[in-house]
Amino acid sequence: MAHLALALLGPFQAKLDGRPIQGLNSAHLRALLAYLAVERGREHPREALASLLWPERPDREAISALRHALSNLRGALGDAGAPSPTLLITRSSVQLHPAADCWLDVAEFERLANQDLTGPPFGRDLTDLTETVKLYRGPFLHGLSLADSPAFEEWMLLKGEETQRRVLSLLEQLAALQLARGATAEAARWARRQLELEPYCEAAHRQLMAALALGGERPAALAHYEAVRRLFAEEFGCEPDDETQALYAQIRHGTLLQPQPQLRVPETLPFPVFAAARPQPRLGAQPPPFPLPTGELSDGRALERPRFVARERELAHLDILLQRALASPGGLALIAGEAGAGKTALLDEWTRRAAEEYGDLIVLRGSCNAHGSAGDPYLPFREILQTLAGDVEGKRAGGTLSTEQVRRAWEALPAVGAALVEHGPDLIDTFVPGGALLQRVEGFAGPRGAPRPLGHRPSGQVWQVRLREMALGGRAGEGAAAAPDLGRGLTPQPDLFAQVTKVLHTVAMGRPLLLAIDDLQWADGATAALLFHLGRRLAGSRILLVCTFRPEALPDAIDPNGLERPLGSVGSVLRELTREWGDVLVDLDHSDGRAFVEAYVDSDPNCLGAGFRQALYDHTEGNPLFTVELLRSFERRGALVREEAGRWIEAPGLDWKHLPARVEAVIAGHLAGLPDEDRALLGAASVQGDKFAAEVAARVLGWDEEAALRRLSGPLRTRHRLVDSISLERLVSSGQRLSHYRFRHLLVQRSAYDSLDTVERARLHEATGRALEAIYSQGERRAGL
Length: 785
What we know:
Structural class: alpha/beta
Distance between the termini: 68 Å
């Protein structure tokens, strides 16, 4: 009997003898197998199963559908003709064989969850309890739906809520036990996991506050309380429980004590471990506001740790730029690359390493919005200044700011507040909400100081008094940072820019700053103007300004090949700043794509040969997004499988024609943004294959050959980077020149070809054939030019 393994806590997964089961290609088949596995302790009448899964059909049709499904299921499980089948099927009933070699994560979860927490192994190292909660990858049968079967949907919902309640209880106990042992980082980890599943669980919020405070992160604990208070005020119109407020007071006054280690969930903790009664939304009804620290995604899928490879040269270049900037001349760095080139991944990895190497460096991130444009001015700079002004809890909870970076930003808060009041008063309530800043300043406690109660009037610091007067005088609002009304003309733009620059320079005197702006190609005109102003005034500041952008999205961007472009907003700003700062460009489009493919493939044990690697490079040209998504799609479809030793190998019949959704969306979006004549030219060229002659495409379209060459060697090659030139040849007898190009990625050629409808495709094939026949009609031989 084959070994069947089913994982239903999260997306449906089924393996037979360690290999993914092929043939379970319908929701009804997966639902049938899942139901029989969970309810394996009894026989199921055929009529009951048919009615459960096909309730809308007449009885005869439902029974027939069940019969067909059982036949397909037996084939997928290898039961046909097997001496010991996995399924026991009679004329009247169906059951998963009681003696079947079947592992079910639901059953394993229930078995481990029912063990005694006070005895071994829990009293020793909590290993089994940790493994129990890790079995819960996400909601029961996440993503599976039988919309026409309310009874099955109800069974799935009830089973899912029962399991989720159980895992919440285990997570609560695990966090409490780790906290009692003094393992505050682990306690915080499991408290956050509870909040991922149930954002309104107040006991979990208290556990997280206590873990942060006892772990030496008191400012973060106090900030988390403020986030909880806002959450409950917005959702329920009430304050947190008395227990939560009492815990907050203990943390503020430094009187929170370390719980004594116990085997049971301690009843003497300074906060209750069970949630207080209050109206609760249905489990899973709200999107989780906190990150998963356990290596899982919010939809329950396993989170693959990012594999960062083949960027040593780029990292070294950025390191040099940072070293120069921290030596006080300041500096600029630009990271350019097409969509999917790995700009953000490089920025993430490099800033993480830089923060580890430089113990006082504050890393601040902002992003431009493709849909914001002029309606959301200065967006990345507002994000940067708000983080610098202590608005950190949401970013830390969202995983975009590390705990260490939160600490560094929080400790800089007094200096930032003073700089804003003294050098940037017009930034308060435009870039930084004044009421929230005042609240953080008055609740701030330095590393050795005692916390000040909220509302206490600070004394001895003139800037604090001025900030309070500004906030309470109506100039500063209490809300979160919405897009400010920066077009009202109250502060001239040059004055606003000078204040931003002065505030950043002042803060950088105490701590160096790394300011990172992502997706600069979407910047509005106001952001571009402020970038230009700041970029020319970084000298002597210990500030490194880093920007990522897509050259193809900027009609006037800097060109690594030295080609001048017309002046414009963002592109001209980047070009002028590059001229001023020199060698600051890291161009990922000119990185070694083949080296990336080789390094990424070899980052996991595999037996993938040269042929596979060459095909992968031909299709992706080493674009990181295309490479990673194509490999993942192969894994999902079973085209790449692991052998017994755990190495990846090709499955028979591997098909390169399928485009992963993310890759298809990127390419389609890029093609859709081209002018009509460029899309027409690429469509005509795609009929010739991944390599094509420009003159043939021009004849097909009825274009002048020179016009086609200008488009291909101009914007389509230099700006959009969709094609590369290969060679030029002349046909000896006629003197006809043929200019040969190739698509940079086979995936781009396929996308351009697939965008043609049936009629257009047939017409272009016919026209291409006639053009080739006309060019080679005299049987001319070729001569390289």
